[in-house]
Amino acid sequence: MATATAVAPATSRVAGVRQNKKRYGGLRPWLFALPALAVYATFLVYPAATSLFFSFTDWDGLSPTYNIVGLANYTAMAQDPVVIQALLNNLIWTVVTIVVPVLIGLTLAILLNGKVRGKTPLRLLFYTPCVLPLVSIASIWGWLYNPDSGVINETLRAVGLGDLAQPWLGQDSTALWAVMVPAIWLRVGFPMLLYLAALQGIPAELYEAATVDGASRSQQLWFITLPSLRQAHYIVIALSLIDSFKVFDMIYAMTYGGPGTATQVMGTWMYANVFQYYQAGYGTAIAVVITVIAIAVSIPYVLSQTKEHA
Predict the structure, then answer these.
(1) Given 11, 37, 54, which residue is the final one in a domain?
(2) Is the residue at 173 inside a domain?
(3) Closest CA to 244 of 303, 289, 290
(4) Do 281 and 66 meet the contact criterion of CB atoms below 8 Å apart?
(5) CA 213 to chain centre
(6) Does residue 69 lie in a domain region?
(7) Is residue 74 domain-resident?
(8) 3-state SS, one letter per residue, for the chain
(9) Does one domain contain both 169 and 39?
């Protein structure tokens, strides 16, 4: 009897623990995630929802009143020649600042992965621009491009090519391309670093077997190196694509979107509408479009990573 009496409370306690686990087990993970979710909702979800709401208004960014205008801001974008020019500049910027840095970064990674003296200083040298403040880079290159005392024009004059000296940032035909040069310079280090890490993960046995079979260096590059870098290609291109379309600071610091609209992109035109023309509703509508495009571009990358780790 005593044993049976002792077992009964123990059994009831175990049953109570199991019942509590069933009751609170699904809630416990959410309690741990609650602080992060609160920060996420406060600094991302709420501002994004607010911006989406104001994109349907004619708010000027200052007054407490506004009117709901529906899709008027979005239809106005389709008829805005500056938006069309900005989208075209965004497209040119995206293609050039992805293709050129990726090709240069891949080439440098292959070279630095081989038997080269001073690998560590060279890696540091090529990667350093990635960690420099963009405003500082813009200031340095703005000084280099100075039409009167800039190093570029002074060098051209010194070697007898003064006819080629020109206001690089001050004319429509060269402004966008001139801004892309420092953008390419600072973007080379990122793909180089990723490719270098991927190259070091390729088994040396593959190259040894290919050498025994008589494969040339170009054949090893084409049939071993590049296929082995497929995942690295995807990561580099996807992240570079997202970053390139959101460009703002480099262009704003160097040209403010000018001369005229020669270097205007969606980010600078959004800023101009919100903070200079006091058309916050229209500016937030441009911001929404930028966000939608960035999300659309990132979806394939996210899906590929999800399938890989599933």
Answers:
(1) 54
(2) yes
(3) 290
(4) yes
(5) 42
(6) no
(7) no
(8) CHHHHHHHHHHHHHHHHHHHHHHHCCCHHHHHHHHHHHHHHHHHHHHHHHHHHHCCECCCCCCCCCCECCCHHHHHHHCCHHHHHHHHHHHHHHHHHHHHHHHHHHHHHHHHHCCCCCHHHHHHHHHHHHHCCHHHHHHHHHHHCCCCCCHHHHHHHHCCCHHHCCCCCCCHHHHHHHHHHHHHHHHCHHHHHHHHHHHCCCCHHHHHHHHHCCCCHHHHHHHHHHHHCHHHHHHHHHHHHHHHHCCCHHHHHHCCCCCCCCCCCHHHHHHHHHHHCCCHHHHHHHHHHHHHHHHHHHHHHHHHHHHHHC
(9) no
Q: Give pLDDT tens digits for 7-35.
A: 455 555 555 555 555 555 567 888 888 99
Give residue for tokens 């490719």: 195
Supply the range of the domain harboring residue 20: 2-54
Mean pLDDT on 166-184: 94
At a CB cut-off of 8 Å and minimum separation 6, what does 257 contact? 251, 263, 264, 265, 268, 269, 272
Report the C-alpha gap between 40 and 195 in whole angstroms. Answer: 32
Question: What domain count does the chain have?
Answer: 2
Q: Which CATH number is 135's domain given?
A: 1.10.3720.10
Burial of 71 from C-beta contacts in 10 A (0-12 / 13-18 / 19+): exposed
Tell me the per-residue pLDDT of 200-218, one tens digit each, with 9 for 90 and over.
999 989 988 999 989 898 8
Contact present, 154 and 162 (Cβ < 8 Å): no
Residues 6 or more apart from 162 whose CB is under 8 A from it?
156
Sequence-distant (≥ 6) Cβ neighbours of residue 107 within 8 angstroms: none
Dihedral, CA atoms, 228, 231, 236, 237, nearest 10 degrees? Answer: 100
